[in-house]
Amino acid sequence: MPAMNTHWKLSAPPESEVHVDADVLAMRAPLVRVHRDKAGTWSFDGPGQSPRPSKRTLLSAVVGAWPHVAALSDLGIGAAAVWSWKQHGWAGESACECGSCDQPVAADIDRHSWPEELQPHTILSVEQAALSGQTALTDIVSTPGGVALLGPGEHRRTADLMTPVALANVIRRWPHTMQALRMLKEGHGMRWSAEGLNWHEYALA
């Protein structure tokens, strides 16, 4: 998995050992909750109650596979954050003492959070190495032949390097792609900036 050391934003070093929900690591669930214990160790979870069965990996591997994690530069020791599908970003998870707080919940995306202009069953073409986390997702391109999600390098890929994935599962795999997919126009691409933590649009040659 790739290390993003050139634009490293998290307070812990890239080589830090972390815990990742086994379902998230196997791409069966979206990464929607991040927690640091009192020792500062990071844990990455899918929807539902934690702790969940997990495996160990390196923080750099997590940031490479799930770029939206890099936005958690302010997550302190003992703190937790939950991905908000409605706000399209991380929300702090705090202890509620009054019982009436609107607490963010680590959940899978549902119909209420799904944007009307996107069709969840639309099939996109995804580079297998990016889907598995072996390389970072860097580009989303729209051509007359459809939409493709790619890792670094030239846009041309042979069919054996690509795999079909439903739009809903693309967004569950990479929550930070939702806004880019909403804005994507045919004949254009969107490139992820690891430094600015945002998407930049460009015209395809």
Compose a concise summary of this entry.
The protein is built from 5 helices and 12 strands. The protein is α+β, with helices and mostly antiparallel strands.
What does the model show?
The protein is an alpha+beta fold and 205 residues long. It has two domains: 17-113, no CATH class; 123-203, no CATH class. 14% of the residues lie in helices and 29% in strands. The protein has five helices and twelve strands. A six-stranded mixed beta sheet has the order 4-1-3-2-5-6. A six-stranded mixed beta sheet has the order 10-7-9-8-11-12. A hairpin with a 5-residue loop joins strand 2 (33-36) and strand 3. Mean pLDDT is 91; it is low at 1-5.
Task: Characterize the biggest β-sheet.
Answer: 6 strands, mixed
Q: Please, what is the average pLDDT?
A: 91
The total tally of domains equals 2
Cα end-to-end separation: 29 Å
Q: Helix content range of the residues, please?
A: 10-25%
Query: Helix count, per DSSP?
Result: 5
Overall 3D geometry?
globular
Strand order of the largest sheet: 4-1-3-2-5-6
User: H/E series, N to C?
Assistant: EHEEEHEEEHEEEHHEE
Low-confidence stretches: 1-5
Strand content: 25-35%
Q: Structural class given helices, strands, pairing?
A: alpha+beta
* Estimated radius of gyration: 17 Å
What is the total tally of β strands? 12
Assembly of the depicted chains: single chain
Name the descriptors:
single chain; 205 residues; globular; alpha+beta; 12 strands; 6-stranded mixed beta sheet
